[in-house]
Amino acid sequence: MSKKGKTFIISGPSGVGKSTVLKALLEQRKNVYFSVSATTRPPRPGELDGVHYHFMDVESFRKWIAMEQFLEYAEYVGNFYGTPKRYVDEAMEQGKDVILDIEVQGAIQVTSKRPETVRIFIAPPSWEELERRLKARGTDSQEKIQKRLLRAKVEFQTAHTYDYFVINDTVENAVRELDAIMTAEHCKPKERMEIINGS
């Protein structure tokens, strides 16, 4: 019997360093599929369909919503974004673990459909450090940084509903903890006993 993959949701505030941590994790764990979102926004220069996003027109996206083809979706600034079920399910059937990098609202949508999904919240070591990282990116005005910090504190209120809580003090530590969580999730008795019983 081939082992089926699991789905892991990674959430955390903007500027916490999720992209850096996930890039390092994916280099370390080979049998992992990083879920690519679908969007109705036009591609930016250098973006490839199926790599950065699955680019769709609004009509197709709405059809997919009606057919319940998304694990979660949302509308931001006039564009739709969503997680297609198909690619997630295909990867899991191939025995790959799937990582969804999604916000708190999306995580609620996914777990209402699939309660077995493992949720991991990534937090900064302190609010001061989060503010420092946001400033260091050099992409946002002071006003926008304050808005992001306010939103981060709202997201933080939901962290206790997650299965795991990882503090990104260093990338190495955060990757080590995420790797340990993913390994531990495959050591549950039910899954291990099925392997032995060959059912």
Describe this entry's structure for a reader.
The longest helix is centred in the C-terminal third of the chain and has 15 residues, at 142-156. The strands form two sheets. Strands 2-7-1-8-9 form a five-stranded parallel beta sheet. The chain has a four-stranded mixed beta sheet with strand order 4-3-6-5. Helix 5 (127-137) packs antiparallel against helix 6 (142-156). It is globular, with a radius of gyration of 18 Å. By secondary structure, it is an alpha/beta fold. A hairpin with a 2-residue loop joins strand 5 (70-76) and strand 6 (79-84). The chain has eight helices and nine strands. 45% of the residues lie in helices and 20% in strands. It starts with 6 loop residues before the first strand and ends with a helix. The model has no long low-confidence stretch (mean pLDDT 93).
